[in-house]
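Exercise 3.2. Students should predict the tertiary structure of the chain below and write it as structure tokens, then compare their answer with the key that follows.

Predict this chain's 3D structure.
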Amino acid sequence: MTRTIPVRSSKHTQFVDITDQVAQAVASSGVSDGFVVVYSRHTTSRIHINEHEPLLLQDLGLLLERLVPRDAFYHHDDFSVRTVNLTPGERVNGHSHCRGLFIGASEHIPVTDGMMMLGRWQRVFMVELDGPQTREVAVKVVGV
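Answer key:
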């Protein structure tokens, strides 16, 4: 079973907790034993499992800013020489693509007895790197 979950971000860089939506997809799939794949369908949003603690999420956002500053020069944003994959209203988002290098586009989570086997503090996040936007997250549940 595959489902697409729309996820709306409200900030440029944001960790949006989608655990409940993924759990709902697992429950409605009828799969008792297997796994779920959660996958971002975008190059500037990612999927990550971590603790939902506001100060930690703030720290993670600050870490991304230190590693890949938003105001640095990125060739991807030089529209005077870039000729590939340009669309009307192209966003200045080279930093967002570079930040995505450090976070995977998907997570695989075991499913047992019809429930995700997440640890006590683990939550599933869609990590927005170029918001605010509405994103599509694919959720595929596989098993018996």
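Discussion points: Residues 44 and 100 are 6 Å apart (CA to CA). The chain has a mean pLDDT of 98.
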